[in-house]
Every structure is written in structure tokens, then in C-alpha cells.
Amino acid sequence: MTEGRRTGSTSETHRAGVEFAQLLEPGDVVLLCGQLGAGKTTFTQGVAFGLGVADRVTSPTFIMVREHLCVDHPLIRVLHHADLYRTNSLDEIVDLALGELVEESAVAVIEWGDMAEEIFAASAIWLRLSALGEFEREFSVSGYPEARRAAFEAWSSS
After folding, report:
1. How far apart, in Å, are the Cα atoms of 71 and each of 20, 49, 52, 65, 77?
2. What tens digit of pLDDT does each residue of 103-132 get?
3. What one-character DSSP code corresponds to residue 97?
4. CA-based nearest residue to 97, from 122, 125, 67
5. CATH number reported for the structural domain that contains residue 112 in this entry
6. Count: domains in the chain
């Protein structure tokens, strides 16, 4: 993993998600990749907060996809939060129809997104999380649209 943004606590990881949310546009699919305990759910909770989600955000490990309304965002109305950890095959992931969920006023954040690489490889924003210590995390972002390169690079280096 190339060096990217680093955080030193769960609150900093949450704040990184809040700031990342400001970069999202309707139709974006974000694939979160990283080992168990890398901070994927904490980061997603920050994204949800940044998009104006008022309800509690937890990992949808057993139900696979949760829909959250974004009450304060001017363009994004829905956050689809998926967790592919318990999927057993690519066919099962295809059956979730995650790509169809992201309409013109929604975004999707998918934990264990590397499992959906064949589906979203060319069209997703990739965010790789690495645990460097008990609370330290490193983020590496790629796959963003060229037109938004400066914004994503600024986020990554902050």
C-alpha cells in the first residue's frame, strides 16, 4: 500500500470519514478494503455523519445491506451501506444488485469491497485501510474520477 492519510484514534478515523463524505457525489460507489478490525465500520459511520444520516450506523454483516436516509445533504438522499464479509460467492454478491441501488441521488459504501472487484473494478472509488497499531490507521484512495483528483489527493494527504 502506498503511503496515504493516517489517523491515530477512532475519533480521527471517524473524522476522516466525515471529511471523505464531502467528496462524494450521487452515484458514487466506495469499496472499502482492509483486514478485520482495520476501521471500515468506524470510517463508514463518519461518512454517514458527514452525509447527514441521523440514525445509528452499524455494520450490516448479517443482513448485508442497510439503507440510511441522508437528511442534510443537498444532493445525496440515500446511503447504502453493505458488508460482504459473509458472502460465499460472486453470484451471491451479484444477487444483492448493489450497482442498481445507487441511483442518481444515492451513494454506496461497501465493506469488504475487494470481494466485489469483478463487479465494480472500473467504476468504483477504492479505499484501502490498514491497521498500523491498536488505533493507528492508514488510508489509500484510488479509482476516483480524474475530474476530482485534486480533492481526493488533498483528502489523502491531510
Report:
1. 17, 10, 5, 19, 7
2. 779 999 999 998 888 888 778 999 999 999
3. T
4. 67
5. 3.40.50.300
6. 1
